[in-house]
Design goal:
The protein is an all-alpha fold and about 475 residues long. The protein has two domains: about 200 residues, Growth Hormone, Chain: A; about 200 residues, Growth Hormone, Chain: A (Up-down Bundle). Helices cover about 70% and strands about 5% of the residues. The strands form three sheets. It has a two-stranded antiparallel ribbon. A two-stranded antiparallel ribbon has the order 3-4. It is globular, with a radius of gyration of 24 Å.
């Protein structure tokens, strides 16, 4: 597809809300000289009748005629995003199915922590068993730069197909596993790598269709991960007593295969692939020269360092405090069910009030909930209240973090930049949960150390989001960034 280039198409788009609630591009970013881009895409200068670059700029009637002439705008310019339409919303539907199978699967890993400790891997410590789920989270996010590079070059089609195969194959092999290293390879690496190949293309494709409503669209798509986190744990816990662990994993794999058929048929990008370029490390590192990008990545890393600890240990902790097994097994599903609203509502508000602003708010409340509610609690009702509130606030991360990143990125590099973000985040996800498990061992099975570590990590992430917001949109509190 041939594209008409304008000065605005060659630079990243930093979007800030104006007083009317519409996004504007700050002066000096993506524009040449004093030229402005009108809503219909035409360009004019504020210096009437003056000479610029050897050309005399039009005045009076000539300026009016020029304003009326349609000018083609690059596909990458904010004004060219459709922000809706059948193909765009079908891509959101496909993204919903993709995140059900990828992030939704990661959201239910807490079920396996308790099950493996009580059955196949009962001779191992909680910290050792937690490496399975940590590897799942790590592998899903770590391959982001590679997947993003291929996505930017060739699009999502082959990546989605390969991801579907690896995810389903890994779960099938996990169904016949019996030893620790079996689960590490099949569930921790192969299946999770497939989930990674599913997650990033869906995230990138949906982002190409929306600009003003991007966080809202990503929130709807990301709610698929919450739905997966509700359906899959309940299904697994109900099926294991009836058909055994092996057939439970196979049935889950078939469900994921069916959902991925929907995703492969509907997820589309609005942009043509730009073709392969040499794989160079500097192509990834150059983005970290931008202070706003680097601080956003650090904020996401700190947040992820503690975010998954309640997902992994809430069931075990609740049982230790006297909650019945039948009720405790539903806590992860309750947390993920509430996070459906956490995916959508903060995203919708973020489009109106500023995405960085909402990210700061939800990250701060998440840390406060851990320290003020989960840490001192021991009864059933406080535990249930905690998982409800925590599911809502942490659910916002999946929709808001990519929206924040897209807000300061050239859409043509969205795959690589998303990949770079989540590759760094994966290190926090890999190490955070085992550190929490080691703290449980150190405190002789008590969760005090884990809870303090979790809460402090989340609050540190919220501070970093504040700094990122200042670097991106300035330090004025009332600015909607």
């Amino acid at each position: 597809m041939d594209e008409k280039q304008t000065p605005a198409s060659s630079a990243p788009t930093l979007a800030v809300l104006d007083e009317n609630g519409d996004y504007r591009q700050p002066r000096g970013i993506g524009f040449g000289g004093d030229r402005n881009v009108l809503s219909d895409g035409s360009q004019v200068s504020t210096k009437k009748g003056e000479e610029e670059d050897g050309e005399v700029l039009p005045v009076g009637e000539e300026l009016e005629n020029l304003e009326k002439q349609p000018t083609e705008v690059s596909l990458h310019h904010p004004s060219s995003f459709p922000d809706g339409g059948p193909t765009a919303w079908l891509s959101v539907l496909g993204g919903f199915a993709a995140l059900f199978c990828s992030f939704g699967w990661i959201n239910c890993i807490g079920v396996f922590q308790g099950y493996y400790q009580a059955n196949q891997l009962k001779e191992y410590s909680p910290s050792t068993v937690s490496w399975i789920s940590s590897l799942e989270t790590f592998c899903m996010f770590f391959f982001g730069p590679v997947v993003g590079k291929y996505y930017d070059a060739y699009g999502s089609r082959f990546i989605l197909l390969l991801g579907t195969f690896l995810h389903v194959f890994g779960l099938m092999m996990a169904s016949i596993s019996s030893k620790y290293w079996h689960f590490i390879i099949c569930q921790g690496i192969v299946s999770a790598t497939g989930a990674s190949f599913i997650f990033y293309p869906a995230l990138g494709d949906v982002s190409t269709w929306f600009f003003k409503r991007r966080a809202f669209a990503l929130g709807i798509m990301a709610s698929g991960s919450s739905m997966g986190g509700v359906v899959l744990p309940i299904m697994i816990q109900r099926l294991i007593p009836r058909v055994g662990f092996g057939w439970t994993m196979r049935i889950t794999a078939f469900l994921i295969l069916g959902m991925m058929v929907i995703a492969n048929l509907t997820v589309r990008s609005r942009l043509q692939p730009k073709g392969w370029t040499p794989f160079r490390l500097k192509d990834f590192l150059k983005h970290f020269k931008e202070p706003g990008f680097s601080m956003s990545v650090l904020a996401a890393f700190l947040f992820f360092f503690g975010m998954f600890l309640p997902f992994n240990y809430i069931v075990v902790a609740a049982k230790k405090h006297g909650m019945s097994t039948s009720l405790a097994n539903y806590l992860v599903s309750i947390m993920n069910g509430i996070s459906i609203f956490g995916r959508i509502l903060p995203g919708w508000l973020g489009d109106k009030l500023g995405r960085y602003n909402m990210m700061i708010l939800t990250a701060s409340v998440s840390g406060i909930l851990v320290l003020a509610l989960w840490l001192p609690t021991s009864g059933n009702l406080p535990n249930i209240l905690f998982v409800c509130f925590y599911g809502f606030t942490t659910g916002a991360f999946v929709s808001l973090a990519p929206a924040c990143l897209a807000q300061i990125s050239d859409i043509r590099e969205i795959g690589v930049r998303n990949g770079s973000l989540f590759a760094v985040v994966s290190i926090g996800a890999l190490t955070g949960v085992p550190i929490g498990g080691a703290l449980v061992d150190k405190y002789n099975g008590r969760f005090l150390g884990l809870q303090i570590f979790c809460g402090v990590s989340l609050l540190a992430g919220s501070v970093a989001w504040c700094l990122a917001r200042g670097l991106v949109g300035g330090w004025k509190v009332t600015t909607r960034v």
